[in-house]
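Re: your question from the hallway

Yes, I did run it. Sequences:
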Amino acid sequence: MATKSMGDIEKIKKKLNVLIVDDDPLNLIIHEKIIKAIGGISQTANNGEEAVIIHRDGGSSFDLILMDKEMPERDGVSTTKKLREMEVKSMIVGVTSLADNEEERRAFMEAGLNHCLAKPLTKDKIIPLINQLMDA
Amino acid sequence: MDAHVAQLQMQYRNYILSLYQQGFLDDQFTELKSLQDDGSPDFVAEVLSLFFDDCVKLVGNMARALDQTGTVDFCQVGANVHQLKGSSSSVGAKRVKGLCINFKELCEAKNYEGCVRCLQQVDIEYKTLKAKLQDMFNLEKQIVQAGGIVPQVDIN
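Structure:
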């Protein structure tokens, strides 16, 4: 499978709509900037419950959801399960801490993630996933 | 004026390199710098401001948790350490992150004296980093005021 160049990403990325779910304001600001830097647009949710409400209220359709694992109200595992139950088809990428062990990562994946990335997020980590979205 | 700008730019490059070489910063800081653009010229400063606010809050929380008479809630201390580790990792604050990794182990071992010592080190370390980054921003300001452009520094 040929890797898309940044030029190809330029053509498609304007439609890339991302939901960033994280309780840490620092991560939200950085992840929003990363998405903007690669040309996407983003919306944020401060915890899993907000993410569920955004989808429940309808009208929201995201290409990609960046899902933090540890959050108050509703954590990433529970949120991912709930969104899949609601038949949300977006690519959901879990964002984990390096401290998370293999079992915790597996449980997160089994909740319905498409991928899992370790913090801190960078453009280099996100772009291959966007390539996959474009190839799908 | 050109010679003065060139001198400032050289000073800036050397200063940035020293921050990486001395372990204050890592690649994530480079990532943050790469995200700054003309549309958000103060992005790095804003992110760092949030980070240092976090440091004040979390160090305060840890100090209060360790200052409890009776049984110390090491889980609570550990939760704050975990948050600070995450924040420091997000901005590339390498030494602070390293201390947090040790600190977490001390919390898990319920090592009170170790935790107190580590907290003191974290306090010193984030304040040191804050001062060094302030010097970096001051150099950037001097370069711009002298009519120059802040150079991109290749740390590799």
